[in-house]
Every structure is written in C-alpha cells, then in structure tokens.
TrEMBL record, chain A:
Cited Gene3D superfamilies: YVTN repeat-like/Quinoprotein amine dehydrogenase
Ranges: WD repeats: 176-218, 263-305
Chain positions covered by the region annotation Disordered: 630-654
Family indicated by similarity: Belongs to the WD repeat WDR24 family.
Name the UniProt record assigns to this protein: GATOR2 complex protein WDR24
Record CDD domains: mRING-H2-C3H3C2_WDR24 (cd16693)
InterPro entries: WD40/YVTN_repeat-like_dom_sf, WD40_repeat_CS, WD40_repeat_dom_sf, WD40_rpt, WDR24
Keyword annotations from UniProtKB, A to Z: Metal-binding, Repeat, WD repeat, Zinc, Zinc-finger
Domain of life: Eukaryota
Organism, scientific name: Labeo rohita (Indian major carp)
Protein function: Catalytic component of the GATOR2 complex, a multiprotein complex that acts as an activator of the amino acid-sensing branch of the mTORC1 signaling pathway. The GATOR2 complex indirectly activates mTORC1 through the inhibition of the GATOR1 subcomplex. GATOR2 probably acts as an E3 ubiquitin-protein ligase toward GATOR1. In the presence of abundant amino acids, the GATOR2 complex mediates ubiquitination of the NPRL2 core component of the GATOR1 complex, leading to GATOR1 inactivation. In the absence of amino acids, GATOR2 is inhibited, activating the GATOR1 complex.
C-alpha cells in the first residue's frame, strides 16, 4: 500500500549530503526559485538528472580552462588567476585598496601587485645574504589604515613591523623580541594607527604602541598557547583570543589583568577566529576538531548559534563581505580546498575552490566590500585569485533524494517532485494520522542563495502481516522463554510460540534442538522432572524419537509402526493433564518428521552408539539456575549436589511413579541400548545454523538459541561474534521499547561486555536528609551527622531496602508501607499535607 | 565512588572486573595502586615498566591506555601482527625484555610459533616493514616518501594506509619504550615469567594485589612488607641504585663516548637464559642489517638532510590531525600522553625540562625556531647529556654498558621523569618524521 504524504513538501537538499547517518528527512518550505550573485553568468536550472549534472560540470570545467587561457572581457575586472611563488606561503594579506597583496612564509616575503592580467611582483622584502629567522614569518598583516605599514609574526618569537616608505632596501622598522616562543598571530587595530596586538605560543598576548620601543601591555591567557588574536571590528576596546586548549577569551584592551569572559569553544586547539564584519556580537571560530562555530557574544551567556562540520581541522576562517551568513574556510591538513559555507546550511558547502595542490595556508577576501574575489596562498607555492563565479557548487552535484526505513517496516522516500509526478495509485495523505505528526514548513528565506529543490515525500507502509512488518519480532520477543525452566521445556515452549506465529522453520529448529541436546535415556532423571513439573511430555517425546531412530535402522517397517503406535498411546495416556492441542500437534509433528527424514542424523546416531556405551549424567538436565548470576563470566560454577536433590533421591522417588509410566519408560529404555550421541556432536551444525540465522537478519533466533543452549554451544562460537549478536538484538529490542526483554537478555548473556551494560550507571547519589550533604558510605546512615537519613514516614524505622519517595514532598519510606498507606489515605504519611500519588 | 571499567576495555576483563567491583577508592592517592592492579589483573603480572611509572600515576594511566588501545583495541591490524611488529621494533634495540614479553603475547593471541624463529619465517608483508623499522629506530630523518610509497604500492603484499599508520605508531611506541626500559634498567633484571595460557593470571598475584592495595581490608602489613616475591613500587629503583654501584667501574668506558658504544659487539647476548628458549627469543633473529645504527645528525646536516622545522610540521597542528584521521582516536591518546608528560611537576625549572626535550629532538634533527640552543649547553651537565643521548640513541644493553647516571644527586623519581621525557620526545620525533613522509605521499 502506498500513500503520498504531501503533494508539495520540499526537501532540503542538505539532507542528501554525504553523511549517511543523517537518514531522517528535512522537510521544508515551498520552492524558491534559486538565484545567485548578480554577476554570475550562469543560468540556474534545476538539475534534473545526474548525467545532466555531469555534463554541466564538464561544461564549466572547460569554460574555466578556457578562461584561464584568455582574459575575458567582463564588467568586473579580474579573473581567476595564479602565480608561482618561490616557496610555500604561510600567510597572506591585502592592502586596503585591494591593489597589492603580501605573501609571507619561512622563505618568502614578497609583495605582489594585483592587476587584471595577473600578479606582478612588486617588492621582495627578504633582503640580506643569509636572512635571519626574523624573516621566517608565521603570519603577516597589512595595516588597513596606513598602506605603507606591515607587521609580521616570526617563528622565532619576534614581532616585526615594516615600513614600505623607507628609502633603503631593508624596510624593517621595528623589532620586538619580547615573546619567548613562536608568535602565531599579529593583528592591527582596525581604526587605531599605532596599535598592534600579537599572540604567541608562550601563552601571552602583547599590545604594542608603534611609537614606543616596547609593548605597552601584556595579557596572560593562563591557558596554553595563543593561536589567534582578532580585534573586534565594532568595539574599539575589545579583542578575542583563541587558545590551544580549546578556549576563547574576550579581553578589554584597557584591562590587562584579566579577561572579560572566557568559554570553551572546541575540543582541542582553536586555530582561528574571525569577527563578523557587520553583526556586532558574532564570532566565528575554527578548530582542530573539524568544526566551525559561530558564537553570539551580544547576550549575557555566549551562545553557539551555528555549527558547521568540515572534513578536516580548520586552519582559517573568514567571513565573506556583504553576505551575512557566508564564511570561507581552509584546512590545516589533508584537505586542500577552500570552502565557502552558508552557516545556515551546514551540511554541504555553498561553494568550493579546488585549485590548490597542497594545503591552503592563507585566505583573504580581496576587498572589504567585494564578495566576489578571494585570494589564497598555499604550501604548494602558489598564490591564487579566485573568482566566485568560477567556484564549483557541490549542491549541484548532490542528489536531492532521501530514503529511510521506519521501525515498523515503513519506507519513506523523498525525491524531486518532477520525478514523482505521473505516478499512479497514490493517495493524498490524510492529515491527523498520529504516526506522522511532524510536518512543518520552514519559511523560505529569500536571502538564502542555496539552490532549492522541491521534493515530494512518499511513505510506503508495510502491510500488516507481511514479511517486512516486525510484528512477529515483537510477539516472539515477548513470548519466548529463555530461562527458568528445564532446557527441554524451554525448547518446547519456544517451538510452540514460533508455530503459533506461523514460523514453521523456527519452530522446527527449536524442536530439533530439544532433540539434539536433551539427554535421552535416563528415566530416573526424567521422572524427576515429571514429578516436579507438568512438563513431562518433551522428554518422553524425545525418547520416542531416539527409539524410532533405532528402529529405523534395525527393524522393519511394521515393527516400527507398532512401536510408534504404542508410543502414541503412551503419550496420550501420559498427557491427561496437558493441553490436548499442544500435545497432539507435537505427536503429529513427530510422526511427520520421522517419516520424512530417514536421515543421516539417525544413522549417525547408530554408528556412534558402540563407541559411547557409558552414559554420563550431563549437567544440562537441571534447571538453569546458575545462568542467572551477577558474574556469569566468572569460571563456570560446578553444579552442586544440594541444588539437585532429585538426582540423589531418584531411585526412591521413581517407585512413586504410576505403574503404567514406569513400565513404559523402562520398556523404552530397554528398546534402546543407549542410542544417543554426545550433545557435542551437534555443535558444529548448530553453530552453522546460528550463523545462518544471524546472517538472514534474524538475530533474535540466534541469540535466543544461544541463551537457551547456554554452555552447550557457548564455547563453540567466538566471543566477539556472540557479543555482536547480543548487541544487535539488544539494540533492536530497545528500539521497539521492549525494555524488559532487553534486560532479561542482558542478564542472561554470558559475554562480559554485555553484562557490563547492566552495571553501568547504577549508582544513585543521595544526600543526607538532615545535613544535606552527600552520603558516601551506606545509603541509610550519614557519616557526617551520624543520623539515620532515610526513615520511613509510616513506621518511623530506618529503611535499608527499597525506599520509595514522593517526588512532590520528598517524603517516603518502605515500599509496602507507603503502598498500604496510600490505599487508605490520599495525604502524605508524614503529615505534610501533600497529596501524594502512587502509581 | 565505585570505579567501573568504563574507560579501559579489557580483553581478559573478568578477573579485572571482579577485583574492581570490590574495590572502593576514595582518594587520589590510591590511583596509582589501582592502576597497577588493573594492569596486574589485565596481564597477570605487573611489569617493571609500570612499576617505574607508578610514581607518576596520571602519566601511567594515559600510557597504559594508549598501549592497551594500540595492542588490543580497534584497529586494522590483526592482533598477532601487532605483537609481531612490537617484537620487530624491540629487537632493533636488542631489548630482550620487550621481545620476550611480546613473544609470549604473540603466542597467546594465536600467533604462529614458527614466525618466532626469525624474520625470515614471517610473512613477506611483515618483512617489508623491516626497512622502515630500521630507519625509524636509528635515523628517522631518513624516512622518506619513497618508503611509504614502496609499502603502499599495490600488489599482493601491500599495506593499506590505515594499517601502515597503525604499524608506524606501534613501531614508534616500542622503540621509545625500549629507551625507557633501558634507562630504567628493567631490561635484564626481570625476564618475564612465562604465563599460563588463556590469560589466567597466577592466583597469588591477584590476591596480593587485592590485599595490599585496596582500602577494603585493613591489612596489618603495608604493601612493602608483603612476601618478597612481589616487589614494592619503588624497589626497582633501589635495584637500579645497586646496579649503579656495581657498574661504577664501567663508567670510564662510558665516558669515551658514543662512537665506541655501538662498535661493541653483542658479546654477552647469547649467554643467559637457556631455559626460556621460546619466550626470551634472541632479538637478533628479528633484525637485519645489525650494523645500522644511530649516526650523529649534526654532522650530516651540511650534506643534504634538511633540518626538520617544528614550525613547519608540528604534532599539534599537523601530526595529530593526520594520525587521528587514519587511525581513529589514537591522536587523542597520544596527545594526552604528550600533555601529561609536559605537565608533570618537575622540581627543577621548566627551562630544564624544555632543554631536555629540545635536546632530544635536536639529536634527531628536529629544531625549534624559537629556541636558543645555547641553553642546552648551559642547563644540561655533560653527564646528563651523555645519559640522555645513550638512552635515546643507544638503548641497547647488549652494546651499551648500562650507563650509570653520573648526574648522581638525582632522586630516583627524577630519573624516571627524565626517562619519561626521553621516551615521549623520541616517540614524537619518530612520529613526526613518519607522518610527514605520509603527508608528502598523500600530497603527491
């Protein structure tokens, strides 16, 4: 059955980004005709298919190559262009009128002119035969007020200023050697001509007045190395500093004694930060944890308002001019591209520049008011000017389709609307179905320049009872018995369950398991069970099977029929107290099975019997009490005699049998001369079977059998596989909110890792009711005030066991007492007047 | 507070949990003993390395966590490969202690005993690793893109990048651990006793640990007064002191400096320990080209080996991101180790610490732009420098006589501290070279 959910739901094409775990769909507002920057000479067409997209990509690639060859006449001067540098660049900066760019690195310090045709080298500042380490630059900044003034941060810890107006070759003006370690960043004040700020590896920031020979103030971040410092563009006195330990601090330039505020922005170093050019309080930070975060500082508490997850550690971040939500990033390692993000669309980059062959080390927008040109320097020794219109648009290559399976086998599918039209057999989605409560429409944002796609969402519901539905899973999980009864009974029960749920294969499997692993010819033992419990049938049944197998091999058909017949009557006689339906079904089944499989199973059994004349009493026959333990992974406990008193007393007890039963059993055991195989014999087959089920996706069966068989099979399957099965099953159970079953499985599991699940976060911290301080040792007496902390409000005695308390008035006491009390009274037993409820 | 094994996942977790669930730890003081006990329960015995480190519990914790992660937790290499690589790495420095330790563990994780006969018996894939092992161990500056390329070259025996990174981390870890073992003198005094298989620790160890280290039982005797077979945490230091006394005579030999050191042959390597043939396998059988050793970097500087500038490729900025990308979470673990060793309280000035660190890096050709190397000579006495160099570059007890610390007034815990610095600086140096080569490979 298929119903359409909405006719025009728009799926945000972010949802189809590369991240597979983001399987849920984002449904958003109506279609917006995409538009792009005014100078983009590219027609926006909705991508209709992948091939179309590829074709267009190729087209643009060719176009770009062509453009690199020849200068295009355009209304805006400039083009995508690059030049080779002599050495890797560490940082770049432009002068205010965007006509020159400075490139700095370990072995390079040059100024290039930006012309229409390309970059032109203007000046080499790296002079001298053997330049000192003062020329080895980690960072460079061109003053935005004075076009002759530059500052560099040297790797040896020096801060150097350069004056291009100097007449001699060496333009170095001032040298500050106050930092002890590498200086990572220098920053001029945006409006104050003589103020320079530096941040160093030694953890200090220093503010220099260029008219003086030394720093005017020193700021100690007290938290490791400073990675970036940035003056606020709007607030005259404020600057931000980012640190290697993940902190960001805000400082007032007038108060060097302590920071104004500090917050942890990232895990690991914060490599960069950048103030929003327009929004006063916005700060973007990028860190080694591969995140770009945008913080709003204007409020009392610093708030993270946007977060973009990139694929590599973020080395630089720069807001795009005139585009409120755009920022450019480049990464420190591995990834060489420059990305421009729309922070509101954090899953897929708005645009990428893919020219560099090694990591990009410096990015800067060419002009403070021009969003179309980006300059970048790289370790591959090139300097690029990127034109925005030449950027590649990952959105265009994304497939705006999404697909997700629901818990109950439903399938949701979103695709472009154009692809979905003309589909027959769709019904409109009737509102108000509680299974799909969350449709909301995001208002289209006109400022968002993202290509938007209108998609339709369809939901395919699984039909009730179909194979896709999971009802069988829930029912099975609820009704299977995994412990608490003898092995044979568990198998029997589970076989019935499977059968009722119309799963014959599983049912057969359980029966087979019972036959394989119940120990057969020990009448005394079986009678014990007969006496104990009502479930005597299974063992008798298994006798009959064994017996039949012997018969198959040794006797003619007539004999066998006789035997079977007699057995059937025995069964019926035995079964007076049983449910007739179950027992009859079982009997029929037995016949059918025996006749169908004259199989190797039984013949093998026969072959083997001479070798194992002795029959040892296996432990498995006893109720599996020992499995339920706190530490099941501890060495296997040896079955102790006192726990199985019936064995020792079996001879006397067997005399209590009704004559008929005992005769039958004895005759059966005489017929078989111990025709059994050691259960071990079946282990490889069972192991294979479990793996088969697990691979079929029925991990439920695998785990259930594993638990029920317990030790019989556990050693055969390696621990990791078991753990894997358990985890999958528990996960499934929890998805279906079958908490009880899941807990039972955890409890019964024998894997250490699974057992731990039950022991995690089991500590409950409580405070003493008298002195209000945390209780450390015992739950009922306080070490500090030596008072009994938890007194029952009903009987006024100390509660040492289960304590129940009201969340409203926090009075309480013994569970039973409170229960009783609240049956009679609505009010709190402590007399506080609160109307407590017990549910 | 109940300590659960949330952070450390143990392969043989059962006993461990059992012990821990009984243990209530109230104060930081017990942290070291708890860690030792964890290690004890984990491996069945407390190796002398952990004992030495126990004077710095915080560091020990991160060290054990890293080691456990590399050897047992998620990672592309199969377990027996990991131990074999560890054997190969330790054999480069003739560290009998680590070779036998990992040989035993190699067998326990179902490694083929044949491989232990020598490198020739190992699969070719592991043999291919020999070259980078050799280079990293002695002259890491030779590590080049071509080595990486050769290993990753597609073919039947090729390595994947993720596997290679794990192998490199393992190699660097073991090489540097050799330095620590040598420096702390734990190599020859405790050849690990062969263990019962299936990871069952000898019973008495567990009991002792539980009695001596927990706060639950009030033991009348302190841990030091326990049975002599169990060593108290600092007794090994006394042993080291004794050795220092004994070998004072060899001091003069030592003074004649490094070139003499590696010219000595492995004379007494074959003499001892006949009975543990399998476990204390002769390291030299895992080594090719035994003559290849450390050479002064400084002398070769004029040739063509560029100085490695930390400002161009640092652990924090570059190494971390790369290694964490290719072998998830290891970056954080290693980062924690480096941070912990950097934050250990050092009684002398932080300058001395930085001098030691930078000196070790300088020995390996790694330079800091922002450091005045005159400081090294000013702050480090000649004896200490010799000691550091011997531990960092020639941690080979078969060639180098166990050098007495002529920096004599140093306290035992400070010696451990210096050894830790050597180990971590060396680890970082090797990692930086290897990771830079991998980066270069990835860019090309």
């Amino acid at each position: 059955m298929r119903r359409e959910v909405t006719s025009a739901a728009n799926v945000n094409n972010d949802s189809t980004s590369a991240s597979p775990e983001r399987a849920h769909l984002f449904i958003k507002g109506q279609c917006v005709i995409p538009y792009e920057d005014v100078n983009r000479d590219r027609v926006n067409v909705c991508v209709t298919s992948r091939t179309d997209c590829h074709a267009r990509c190729n087209f643009y690639l060719e176009l770009r190559l062509e453009m690199e060859k020849m200068t295009r006449v355009s209304t805006v001067n400039g083009r995508t262009m690059f030049c080779h540098l002599d050495a890797p660049a560490n940082a770049i900066s432009v002068c205010r009128d965007a006509t020159q760019v400075v490139v700095a690195g370990r072995n390079i310090f040059k100024i290039y002119g930006l012309e229409e045709e390309g970059f032109v080298e203007r000046l080499n500042l790296r002079v001298g035969r053997k330049p000192s380490l003062n020329f080895s630059c980690a960072d460079v900044m061109w003053h935005q007020m004075d076009e002759n003034l530059l500052a560099t941060a040297a790797t040896n810890g020096a801060v150097v200023t350069w004056n291009l107006a100097r007449s001699c070759r060496n333009k170095q003006e001032q040298l500050f050697t106050e930092h002890k370690r590498t200086v990572n960043k220098v920053c001029f004040h945006p409006t104050e001509v003589n103020m320079l700020l530096s941040g160093s590896q030694d953890g200090f920031m220093k503010c220099f007045d260029l008219r003086k020979k030394e720093s005017v103030s020193t700021f100690s971040g007290q938290s490791e190395s400073v990675r970036d410092v940035q003056f606020s563009i709007k607030d005259y006195f404020t600057f931000a500093a980012s640190f290697e330990n993940g902190n960001v601090q805000l400082w007032d330039i007038r108060r060097p004694d302590r920071y104004e505020r500090m917050f942890t922005a990232h895990t690991g170093p914060v490599f960069c930060c950048d103030w929003h050019p327009e929004d006063r309080g916005w700060l973007a930070t990028g860190g080694r944890d591969k995140m770009v975060k945008v913080w709003d500082m204007s409020t009392n508490r610093v708030k993270e308002i946007y977060c973009v997850q990139t694929i590599a550690s973020v080395a630089r971040v720069k807001w795009r001019p005139e585009r409120r939500y755009h920022l450019a990033t480049c990464s420190m390692m591995v990834d060489h591209n420059i990305y421009v993000w729309d922070v509101r669309r954090p899953f897929i980059p708005f645009a990428t520049f893919e020219e560099h062959k090694d990591v990009t080390t410096g990015i800067v927008w060419r002009n403070q008011h021009d969003p179309y040109y980006l300059l970048s320097g790289s370790k591959d020794s090139t300097l690029y000017q990127h034109m925005f219109k030449d950027a590649s648009r990952p959105v265009d290559r994304a497939n705006p389709e999404g697909l997700c399976f629901g818990l109950f086998g439903d399938l949701a599918f979103a695709a472009k609307e154009s692809l979905m039209t003309g589909d027959v057999g769709r019904k409109t989605y009737p509102g108000g179905d509680r299974r799909y409560p969350i449709f909301f429409f995001k208002k289209p944002d006109v400022t968002e320049q993202f290509a938007q796609v209108s998609s339709a969402l369809s939901v395919f519901e699984s039909e009730a009872g179909s194979s896709v539905g999971m009802d069988w899973f829930i029912n099975t999980a609820k009704s299977y018995l995994l412990s608490g009864k003898p092995f044979a009974e568990l198998c029997e029960h589970n076989a019935q369950v499977a059968k009722k749920l119309n799963r014959p294969q599983e049912s057969t499997t359980w029966t087979m398991l019972r036959i394989m692993f119940s120990e057969p010819a020990n009448p005394s033992l079986s009678t014990n069970h007969n006496l104990n419990k009502s479930g005597n049938l299974p063992l008798v049944n298994s006798f009959s099977m064994k017996e039949m197998s012997a018969a198959l091999n040794e006797r003619n058909k007539e004999n066998r029929q006789d035997n079977l017949h007699s057995l059937e009557t025995n069964l019926n006689n035995n079964d007076e107290n049983e449910e007739t339906e179950g027992s009859e079904g079982q009997a029929e089944y037995l016949f059918g099975d025996a006749e169908l499989d004259d199989d190797d199973l039984y013949s093998m059994e026969h072959d083997n019997q001479a070798e194992e004349p002795e029959y040892l009493l296996p432990q498995e026959a006893f109720p599996l009490r020992h499995e339920i333990m706190d530490h099941p992974s501890a060495p296997e406990p040896v079955q102790e005699k006192p726990e199985s008193p019936h064995v020792s007393g079996s001879e006397t007890e067997s005399t209590c049998l009704t004559p008929m039963e005992s005769i039958n059993l004895i005759s059966v055991s005489q017929l078989l001369f111990s025709p059994h195989l050691p259960p071990k014999f079946f282990c490889p087959i069972v192991k294979e079977m479990l793996c088969y089920y697990a691979e079929q996706g029925d991990v439920q069966m695998a785990v259930s059998v594993l638990i029920v068989l317990g030790d019989r099979i556990r050693k055969e399957i390696d621990e990791l596989t078991q753990e894997h099965w358990y985890m999958s099953y528990i996960d499934l159970l929890q998805r279906f909110e079958l908490w009880n079953v899941s807990n039972e499985v955890i409890k019964l599991s024998t894997c250490g890792a699974i057992m731990c699940l039950n022991q995690a976060s089991t500590t409950l911290h409580i405070n003493c009711s008298n002195c209000k301080r945390p209780m450390s040792n015992k739950g009922w007496i306080c070490d500090r005030c030596h008072q009994c902390a938890s007194v029952c409000a009903v009987c006024h005695h100390v509660v040492k066991g289960l304590f129940v308390w009201c969340q409203g008035c926090s009075h309480g006491g013994h569970l039973e007492h409170v229960m009783e009390w609240l049956k009679q009274s609505k009010h709190c037993p402590a007399g506080c007047g609160h109307l407590c409820e017990y549910t | 507070m109940i300590i659960c094994t949330k952070n450390m996942d143990y392969r043989f977790g059962t006993q461990c949990q059992f012990v821990q669930n009984q243990v209530m730890v109230n104060s930081e003081k017990d942290r070291a003993s708890l860690l030792c006990m964890k290690a004890l329960a984990n491996r069945g015995r407390l190796d002398s390395v952990s004992q030495q480190m126990a004077s710095h519990p915080q560091y020990l914790e991160s060290f054990l966590r890293t080691q456990h992660y590399i050897l047992y937790m998620d990672g592309p290499l199969p377990l027996h490969y990991r131990h074999y690589i560890a054997i190969m790495a330790a054999a480069r420095h003739h560290c009998r202690y680590l070779v036998s330790l990992h040989s035993a563990q190699f067998l326990r994780v179902d490694g083929d005993p044949l491989w232990l006969q020598g490198l020739e018996a190992a699969p070719p894939r592991l043999r291919h690793l020999d070259h980078i092992n050799k280079v990293l161990a002695h002259q890491p500056w030779l590590t080049a893109r071509s080595h990486i390329q050769a290993l990753l070259k597609t073919g039947e025996q090729c390595w994947s990048l993720a596997e290679l990174v794990q192998a490199v981390v393992l190699l660097a870890h073991c090489h540097s651990l050799c330095s620590f073992v040598f420096g702390s003198g734990s190599d020859s005094d405790s050849i690990p006793t062969p263990r019962v298989h299936h990871g069952t620790p000898p019973g008495y160890c567990l009991c002792d640990a539980a009695n001596g280290n927990t706060a639950l039982l009030p033991p009348p005797a302190g841990p030091t007064e326990k049975a002599p077979r169990r060593r108290s945490l600092d007794s090994s230091c006394e042993v080291a002191y004794l050795r220092e006394q004994i070998q004072k005579s060899q001091e003069e030999i030592k003074e004649r400096k490094a070139d003499r050191l590696h010219s000595q042959t492995l004379s007494h390597a074959d003499v001892e320990e006949e009975d543990e043939a399998m476990f204390s396998a002769d390291p030299s059988r895992f080594v090719t080209d035994p003559e290849f050793g450390y050479q002064e970097f400084a002398r070769r500087e004029e040739d063509h080996f560029q100085v490695f500038r930390v400002q161009d490729y640092s652990w924090e900025d570059h190494g971390f991101s790369l290694v964490n990308r290719l072998y998830s979470d290891i970056g954080h673990l290693l980062d924690e180790r480096f941070r912990n060793v950097a934050s250990l309280p050092f009684p002398h000035s932080p300058d001395l610490k930085r001098a030691i660190w930078n000196y070790i890096h300088c020995i390996y050709g790694i330079r800091y732009d922002d450091y005045d190397y005159g400081e090294v000579n000013r702050l480090l006495e000649r004896g200490l420098k010799l000691y550091i160099k011997a531990v960092a570059c020639y941690p080979d007890s078969s060639k180098t006589p166990l050098c007495p610390l002529s920096w004599a007034h140093i306290k035992a815990s400070e010696k451990v501290h210096v050894n830790l610095l050597v180990m971590e600086a060396r680890l970082q140096a090797e990692l930086l070279y290897a990771l830079r080569a991998i980066t270069q490979y990835m860019i090309a």
